[in-house]
Design goal:
With about 220 residues, this protein is α+β, with helices and mostly antiparallel strands. Helix content is about 35%, strand content about 25%. The chain folds into two domains: about 120 residues, Sandwich (Jelly Rolls); about 70 residues, Arc Repressor Mutant, subunit A (Orthogonal Bundle). The radius of gyration is 19 Å and the shape is globular.
Length: about 220
Amino acid sequence: MNRTPEISSFRLAPLFRELDRDLLTQIAQHARWRELETGEQLFAKGDTGHHFFLVKSGVIKLFLMSEDGEEHITEIAGREQLFAEAVMFMGDTYPVYASALEPSTLIAFDAHFFVTLLRANSDLCLKLLGTLSRQLHTLVVEIDGLTLHSGSRRLARYLLSQPAKKTANGRMVELPIAKQALASLLDLRPETLSRILNKLAEEGLIAIDTDCITLIQPVSLSRI
C-alpha cells in the first residue's frame, strides 16, 4: 500500500491541525500508507528514524527489552494517535521497539522533509513547539500518576479514560489491548492486575466479562 494519503486523512491530528492547505499538501506528498499484521514489527530500537507515524486503525505498542528478555511497554498508540515524532529532534535512531498488537493501518511521514519545513518556517516551529509542550504536560501528569498512585488507582484512571458504551448496569469498556499488555502499560505484574480486577469486582465497582469491563460505580472508581 504505497499510495499518497489524502490531506483529510491526517489534517485533524494535533501536529497538523493548524497548518494551511499548502503545507498539508507538501506533507502528504512525502507520506505513505503502511499496513502491519498482528505481531509485525514496525521498527527496532536503534533503527534509523526516517519516519514518524499516525495510526488510522489498529493498535501499536512501543516497548523496551530488558537484558533478561522481559518486555516493558512504554506507550500504546491507538486510532488517530501520532507516535515517534520526537525522532526528528532526538537523534537519528528510534529509542524503542514498535510492533502491531492487531492488524493496523498507519500513515508514515517523512521526518527529514518535515524538519526541512520547520527550518524554513518559523510559524510552523512555534505551532509545533506548542503541540509538543502540551504533549509533554500530558506525559508529566501520567508519570505522576504512575509514581504517586497505587496500582488500583492507576487501573481505575485507565478504565475511566477509555471510550465506553452505556448499558443498563453502567458503562462498558472494551479493553483495546490484552491484559498482559495492559499490566505492562500500568507498570504492574500480570498477577497483580488480576488481583486488582478481582478485588474491584468483589467490591461491586466493576463487572468482568473476558475483555469487556462494565464500570458499575464510576464515581466510586474515581475516588480510589
